[in-house]
Amino acid sequence: MLVIVLENAPPRLRGRLAVWLLEVRAGVYVGAYSKRVREHIWAHVQEGIETGNAVMMWRSTAEAGFEFQTLGANRRIPADFDGVQLVRFMPEAEPDAL
């Protein structure tokens, strides 16, 4: 199983992903591909994401049963804790004081 979620992605990238994956919701793509094809698809995401952000998740033999990687600016970032991949949140930006 492969899942890719895009935010603020250009329409060209969304159309390209729709060639390989099923878009089940706006910006949410699902499919089942080998590691080689997954890496090929992710390379297209890296090339076309521009100022947006993306996360890709796939089934694996890891402790959680899946792995993921992210791309672009987002408050949620992957963090490895003793071999378990979790998500941590960056603090929100403080508004400028007047």
What is the domain tally? 1
CATH level-3 fold name = Alpha-Beta Plaits
Largest sheet: 5 strands, antiparallel
- Radius of gyration, in Å, reads 15 Å
SSE string: EHEEHEEEE
Protein model, in words:
It is flat, with a radius of gyration of 15 Å. 10% of the residues are buried. The chain has a single domain, classed as Alpha-Beta Plaits (2-Layer Sandwich), CATH 3.30.70. Strands 2-3-1-4-5 form a 5-stranded antiparallel beta sheet, covered by helices on one side. Strands 6-7 form a two-stranded antiparallel ribbon. Helices cover 24% and strands 40% of the residues. The model has no long low-confidence stretch (mean pLDDT 86). Strand 6 and strand 7 (84-89) form a beta hairpin. It is of the alpha+beta class and 98 residues long. The protein contains 2 helices and 7 strands. The longest helix has 14 residues, at 35-48.
Brief description of this entry?
This protein has two helices and seven strands, in the order βαββαββββ. With 98 residues, it is an alpha+beta fold. Helix 1 packs antiparallel against helix 2.
